[in-house]
Amino acid sequence: KEKKPAEGRKHQNMKNDIKASQGQWGRAWEVDWFSLASILFLLMFAPLIVYYFIMSCAQYQCSLTDPLLDLLMGNKHLSDIWNSTPTLTYRAAVIYTLWVTFQVVLYLFIPDFCHKFLPGYVGGVQEGAVTPAGVVNKYEINGLQAWIITHVLWFASTSCFHFFSPTIIFDNWIPLLWCANILGYAVSTFAMIKGYFFPTNAKDCKFTGNFFYDYMMGIEFNPRIGKWFDFKLFFNGRPGIVAWTLINLSFAAKQQELYGQVTNSMILVNVLQGIYVLDFFWNEAWYLKTIDICHDHFGWYLGWGDCVWLPYLYTLQGLYLVYHPVQLSTAHAIGILILGLLGYYIFRMTNHQKDLFRRTNGNCRIWGKKPEYIECSYTSVDGTKYYSKLMTSGFWGWARHFNYTGDLAGSLAYCLACGFEHILPYFYIIYMTILLTHRCLRDEHRCSSKYGKDWKRYTAAVPYRLLPGIF
Ligand code: NDP
């Protein structure tokens, strides 16, 4: 972003309603009843939703209706279901503690070496975006390295040295769920206390005065311990996303153990989600500029969500395929592969176009031409005026969030790999559609407050959000 500090003071008296734009930037300062109701609903029901999905696989072969029917018809009581659920075990607690500790060690103590030999990869110390208080944080980008080391050790431990079985994750899936919940609640509670008593940057904190809202949406913008342990970067990427591919591998190993083969649908889910995960780590530096890091505060939504929601619900397709080993026809498998790769291509190219455009300040080529854009400006908390650009070329000229459209196409491919017998594996596409549509509206609301009339000019130039001509 182009900052012109010398002009900052001069602009302080501008007619711009600075206070209003400060108030709207980032998450809300005041809570309306709808947000509060949604938050209370999520706080109460999100953990139950996760439990219900995992339990229905373990006890009802992934049927989402059978548990309800059993309860309604009096065949079973809640206590029967609960009593059949594995409890927290010592073994799971040890596995989980070692796992998280190992990820902390990889994150904190092993500076990135991948960027030294992988051409095009951006790692090592990188800067995040400017925060509302005008701070620019530094991050050690070493997620790709952590992913590689973890996976090499996984293959060595399971296949060469046979320290443990690759089915270890599946075999402890529910006891590990309790551990993930403990960490998720502990870290969110700690983040809230920290926000009140020892914030990393007091100017980047937001208090609504509503306990539930603050707990859910977070108080601190970028909570840190010491100079380098950044809560958002750590919990968003590791342990959840590093675990994603290991979880899928463990599900594939379970299929092999139970049925003597790994189905093509399981391979597709492993490959397509593996590409998504690797893409995330390859582009971890870019991730510093996404909404999670640039705008969201760190609360239960990110803390618990990263520990529990992501690893348990994003991997439902693999879990489902353990209980229902679907072997797809070649045509069906190729169709899904094409959809998954096409979705990924759109997702990556759209994100890449914006990244390139912003990094070069518009001095680049998009689809062989100089990009077109709308000049815009905004003001930070200290009254400094900043300038920015909104691109209207490439995929960004097709729709305002075509990256989400690509993401959704890829997500649909994972679900379609599971056939049409049950709704459970389709949870992901339903959830992603709600998440990304909500995110799109949230982002647009914020951008509109941030850029004001410039945003209006942009939406006039690119009128659709996700699908040109439709929405
Ligand atoms: P974007 O990468 O779309 O970032 C939105 C921001 O980009 C806006 O706030 C604005 O920021 C800037 N911007 C908007 N329009 C333009 C434009 N025309 N030209 C230049 N800059 C523009 O959103 P996210 O951070 O949400 O998503 C990043 C990726 O992560 C997406 O592909 C998404 O699909 C994926 N994702 C995946 C999730 C998952 O759970 N699997 C969850 C969330 C995201 P500024 O203030 O700088 O102008």
Description:
The protein is mainly α. It has three domains: 32-85, no CATH class; 87-327, no CATH class; 334-470, no CATH class. It has 23 helices and seven strands. The strands form three sheets. Strands 1-7-6 form a three-stranded antiparallel sheet. A two-stranded antiparallel ribbon has the order 2-3. A two-stranded antiparallel ribbon has the order 4-5. β4 and β5 (229-230) form a beta hairpin. The relative contact order is 0.12. The protein binds NADPH dihydro-nicotinamide-adenine-dinucleotide phosphate.
Task: Set down the secondary structure blueprint.
Elements lengths: L1 E2 L1 H4 L9 H7 L8 H28 L5 H7 L5 H6 L6 H20 L4 H4 L6 E7 L5 E6 L1 H18 L7 H4 L1 H25 L13 H7 L6 E2 L3 E2 H7 L2 H20 L4 H19 L1 H4 L3 H4 L5 H14 L2 H8 L6 H30 L13 E7 L5 E7 L3 H4 L3 H15 L10 H25 L1 H9 L10
Antiparallel strand pairs: 1-7, 2-3, 4-5, 6-7
Helix pairs in contact: 2-22, 3-17, 6-10, 10-17, 12-17, 13-14, 13-17, 13-18, 14-19, 19-21, 21-22, 22-23
Class of secondary structure makeup: mainly alpha
Largest sheet: 3 strands, antiparallel
SS field, number of helical segments:
23
How many separate domains make up the residues? 3
Rough outline: globular
Any low-confidence stretches, pLDDT <50, length ≥5? 1-25
**Strand segment tally:** 7
Distance between the termini: 29 Å
What is the strand content? 5-15%
> Would you list the SSEs in sequence order as H and E?
EHHHHHHHEEHHHHEEHHHHHHHHEEHHHH
Specify the helix fraction band. 55-70%
Rounded mean pLDDT is: 90
List the bound ligands.
NADPH dihydro-nicotinamide-adenine-dinucleotide phosphate
Q: Which strand order spans the largest sheet, edge to edge or round the barrel?
A: 1-7-6
Compute the gyration radius: what is it? 23 Å
Family: Belongs to the ERG4/ERG24 family.
Enzyme class: oxidoreductase
GO biological process, one term: cholesterol biosynthetic process
Pfam families: ERG4_ERG24
